[in-house]
Amino acid sequence: MIIDIHGHYTTAPKALEAWRNRQVAAFGDGTAMPRASELRIGDDELRESIESNQLRLMRERGLDLTIFSPRASFMAHHIGDFAVSSTWAAICNELCFRVSRLFPDHFIPAAMLPQSPGVDPATCIPELVRCVEEYGNVAINLNPDPSGGHWTSPPLSDRHWYPIYEKMVEYDIPAMIHVSTSCNACFHTTGAHYLNADTTAFMQCLTSDLFKDFPALRFVIPHGGGAVPYHWGRFRGLAQEMKKPLLEEHLLRNVFFDTCVYHQPGIDLLTRVIPVDNILFASEMIGAVRGIDPQTGHHFDDTKRYIEAAHVDPAQRRKIYEDNARRVYPRLDAALKGKGR
Amino acid sequence: MIIDIHGHYTTAPKALEAWRNRQVAAFGDGTAMPRASELRIGDDELRESIESNQLRLMRERGLDLTIFSPRASFMAHHIGDFAVSSTWAAICNELCFRVSRLFPDHFIPAAMLPQSPGVDPATCIPELVRCVEEYGNVAINLNPDPSGGHWTSPPLSDRHWYPIYEKMVEYDIPAMIHVSTSCNACFHTTGAHYLNADTTAFMQCLTSDLFKDFPALRFVIPHGGGAVPYHWGRFRGLAQEMKKPLLEEHLLRNVFFDTCVYHQPGIDLLTRVIPVDNILFASEMIGAVRGIDPQTGHHFDDTKRYIEAAHVDPAQRRKIYEDNARRVYPRLDAALKGKGR
User: Fewer CB within a 10 Å sphere, N or C end of chain A?
Assistant: First the structure.
């Protein structure tokens, strides 16, 4: 089985964006917010948005199952306040849940959180609980910078974030560390902010002893770990100067990388440098890079092709495609086993 | 000849740091600043600080010449105001100039600028002129984020920066795009902020048409280009979606990468992905990562070993070691030719 651990609902019906625009405008004006119940999207619309997009490409590429979360760039936690984020997260998470019900063999949900800059992350717990207990979510996306490129929250190693971690450990779910849209003109969202956040999050883990406090906590760093595998020697050297244990021991029981790296040399580096047990298959399709690579004639984000061509043996490839995902996302494994898969 | 285009004076005599501490304290207190003339460092001290450190390692590793600039993390443009930065930059640049006079065969200077957050970069021109005309500097270090991790300046493509670019083009000097210490707790200076800035700067160039306005402008992105070569497919794909020309045409006449990547797989990726004409040898020795890699028994920052082992032919290696540096830094080439080198 091939599990794509990193898919977002980037193709939701336009009514979703229209509702969000009304919400944002109302917050700006101080006028009455639209109610969640005013957003009506039928099952047929949901089906169509998936069948003609993600599911079509999954079938073409031979991917079986996607861990599916709300569109990352639309989380936009910097907009509004906690109430705005809370309503918005509930709507987006419900849509992903509905997709997972419509296509139970192909999608399983992961939750966005109703984060808001300067607001205690503990406020996210009720939505997290609902998503796990009622919607069967197997993971969360945690935004280390709800300010959208101003980086005003404490590092992930700070106790600020511990309420989330405690709940994650209780539920045995991992977090993908994923920022949203940048509202800082310096940072292009998908070309700079995303990759910077990946590198930043890894380094926040490296300099701290977070995983001593939470030995069972698991983070997935998306986009192939940002700059980390390319600079693995730098990170090993920095850890050594800080008298930290070897990275394998210090971080790699808790930190995992996805394969959203959109060319063969990048995937070759990833699989050469990072232990295979820490690499999880993903494409973030349909996402930031949708075109066809003129050098290959295939989609940039068809990452399965790169994994097929990488120098890993069949047992290692199976870990990347399936076994690691089952281990890092135990609720995914349980859900699959519950269906005899 | 092997030219290291990225060295900082990280080993300056302690008196420099003591003077700086007095300056910073005085600014904080509102008391009288120390005068530049109160800092006295003799030639013997300078000689000793270089001979026992950078020059010793250059000889051990077989490096001939280093482009030498003030310590990047000490620039700390976020501290104080323009007057503070101005005095500090003048002192640091003078020291690098003196090192270049004491060891004219081994060091040639590059300048830091007296940047200050919110201050017009045009204010940096007098120091830039002095460093080029009086001190023989062959390049500048340009900090895209003088706020130290808060990213409050406009992107490098903004006209805000044009006065610097006009002077660079007039003098035919490149800029290394190099941030300084992070004062944002989210970003570890050398493990996150440096790499993020490299990626960010590249993306600012990619999304803009800066090099249409300045066809002769040249940027060197340090630390192997941050995350860029590892994600080269992503950047090619993003450029394609933005209807930009191929990156070779859009950016690679103006943007160059150094080899400060501290393990073999990273250098192998760099030389596989980036055209050899855009790769310049560098080590940033003695810098962020000073230890010995237990996997190799050699210093992490002994980047020459990785270039020696990379899959490039002798003519390509010569470009990386020397020819590209002479082309990207014409004043370096002229200075060498003036000595028959």
Answer: C
